Amino acid sequence: MKKLAVFDFDSTLMDGETIDFLAAPLGLEEEVASITERAMAGEMDFFKSLVSRVALLEGLEKAKVDAICADLPMMPGALEVVAGLKKRGYVVVCFSGGFRNATAPAAKALDLDADFSNFLHDENGILTGRVGGEMMYSDAKGDMIVRMQKLLGISREDTLVVGDGANDLSMFAHADTRVAFCAKPVLKEAATHCVEEKDLTQILDIVDTL
Fold this sequence. Notes:
CATH topology: Rossmann fold
Shape: globular
CATH architecture: 3-Layer(aba) Sandwich
CATH class: Alpha Beta
Largest sheet: 7 strands, mixed
Strand content: 15-25%
Strand order of the largest sheet: 4-3-2-1-5-6-7
CATH superfamily: HAD superfamily/HAD-like
Number of domains: 1
Low-confidence stretches: none
């Protein structure tokens, strides 16, 4: 019997927020990080926060974006937890309110089964400040996990979700094992387990007690 493990990307599989790294060359890291913080705490609508943050990236070269995204720091234990879950029969995927520029190379490096995220729009290799995709809304991850469960024939009882912020709440609603990883209080309240250290291998200990 297959099982399903769904990870958030930013501040879960990856140690940080992709958009904060992208804002740094523009000198806008603090401004973007402030909006990110409000969104992850559930104090701001995720769609509005995403659109406003991406707008600040207008003018950034796509080549620069790809170079930054190819060198993002993975969370300690990321490689080990993916391999360990696969050995235990899990299909392991990533849902991100961030961008394919980041999740695609990470998915390859970590050997994820799939990654779902948004697309930064560019014209002639320059970001326009616009974004599109299926992970732009607060309920997007919940909608996608239900579709994946139906597609794969996997129940919520056999579904593990791991995240850190308010936009992970919708997928938490469809899994029996819910891990809040170094998370905001709003997500901890919805979790069955909490990991407070930056060590993803602790999730394997949780899974082995189920």
